[in-house]
Amino acid sequence: MPSKEIPQQSGRKDRAGAASNGTSAAAESRSNQRVKGARAKAAATAGVSQPAAGPGRRGPLAVISRRAADRLRGGHVWVYRSDVEKVSMVADSRLMHVVDQRGASLGTGLYSTSSLIALRMVSREIIDENAWQELLRARVLAAVQYRRRLLEGGPAGTDSCRLIFSEADFLPGLVADRYGDLVVLQFLTQGMATPMVRATIVEVLREETDVRAVFERSDPKIVALEQLDAGTADPLFSRSDPPAHFAGASTVFRLNGLKFHYDANSGQKTGAFLDQRENYAAAAKHCRGHALDVCTYQGGFALHLARSCETVTGVDSSRSALEVAEQNLALNRDSLGKLEVEWFEANAFDLLREWSDSRVLFDSIVVDPPAFAKSKRAAEGALRGYKELNLRALKMLRPGGTLVTCSCSHHVGIEEFTAVVAAAAADARRQVRLIERRGAAADHPVLLGVPETEYLKCLICIVES
């Protein structure tokens, strides 16, 4: 339980990114109408599909603007609804042939009738439903095999990762996270939330992994936006007999040798964010002394800091998150010894202002707030928020201390974020050396041409006098 309460609240922490905010897409270079299994697998791995069928193919068709066509040719994979000039629909089909104003083919996309992103491209050629199913299976298989290599070749004590990262794995609108013996799926688009897609994913996971169960837990906001089915609380797949139903959606998983609770039914995201796994380890390597974790949520950074620091203080506005953080601390008591972590329920802005004005000092500070900018219009306000938190943190660091500061707002780029930290350092009259510039872990690859897949920024700095 939290050891001290401060009544201000700032709301539950949320993680934003290309996948979690519903902005998903895919890129592919070649595909045909009859993609055979082995050829489709090679295509999925290399990002290349097979030769297309002839131009006389009939079916669902979308004509898009020149602006959108230029964007696709430049490597992006989204078409916004405002750029769709004409749509010819076929009942129950989400695959759509996409052409420019002159009729030149741009490939095949998944169509949404409700999202602002009307089309998410899955191939640069014309493919039919049969070819799409073959390609889907090949891409899911390639994504799972890539993560298997990461886990087998990575640090000991990690059994969890993002198995599928939407557009970055050429599977727009699909996210799959593995937490120990559970896999949790999120469907973010109409084109992905189909019985065929669910069945194909479950088949690959059953064959290629040893997970106990697969659950579907799509974001309610995305479900409403995309007009999707709400899904079921029961697993899509379970190895247990009888099947693990609603009560079987909880587990304990491991990151970097630490244990964390996960409950797919809790309605909250896990506090040990998978995209921060490598940054957790980097923070523990650099941080020493008395440490502060701002926006700790369920203790992801705080528990890693407890391995290398003398004391750790975690701050978050969510009481329920801090209660899980305390449970996570108890899970790791044997490996962390008697070191105590003190939890404060508080609004981070208010508490840091109070502590910095009172000259409360730390040797290491982590700042990992939720996404402040979930749209371009919010970017300016987000920059002010990031500057305020980092300014207060810089004032609270002893000379030679370590600042680990993060942003998961896609609409704030790495250059802008670095400039904000530099401006905060100038206002705080501190000299700051940047020693590491980091992003998401390797299970969250970046698709070049789709900047939305590169959303997480992490700067590790040494703060001088």
Furnish the topology, listing elements before pairings.
Blueprint: E1 4-5, H1 37-46, E2 61-64, H2 66-73, E3 78-80, E4 84-88, E5 95-99, E6 105-111, E7 117-123, H3 129-153, E8 161-165, E9 174-179, E10 182-187, H4 195-208, E11 213-216, H5 220-226, E12 237-238, E13 250-255, E14 258-263, H6 277-286, E15 290-294, H7 300-305, E16 311-316, H8 319-331, H9 333-336, E17 341-345, H10 348-357, E18 362-367, H11 379-395, E19 397-407, H12 414-428, E20 432-438, E21 457-463
Parallel strand pairs: 1-17, 2-5, 10-11, 15-16, 15-18, 16-17, 18-19
Antiparallel strand pairs: 2-4, 3-7, 5-6, 6-7, 8-9, 9-10, 11-12, 13-14, 19-21, 20-21
Helix pairs in contact: 1-3, 3-4, 10-11, 11-12
Spell out the key features of this protein.
single chain; 465 residues; alpha/beta; Archaeosine Trna-guanine Transglycosylase, Chain: A, domain 4; Rossmann fold; 3 domains; eight-stranded mixed sheet; six-stranded mixed sheet; 12 helices; globular; disordered N terminus; methyltransferase; SAM-dependent_MTases_sf
User: Segments where pLDDT lies below 50 for 5+ residues?
Assistant: 1-14, 16-56
Strand content: 15-25%
CATH-defined fold name of the largest domain: Rossmann fold
In round numbers, the mean pLDDT is 86
CATH architectural type of the largest domain: 3-Layer(aba) Sandwich
Number of domains: 3
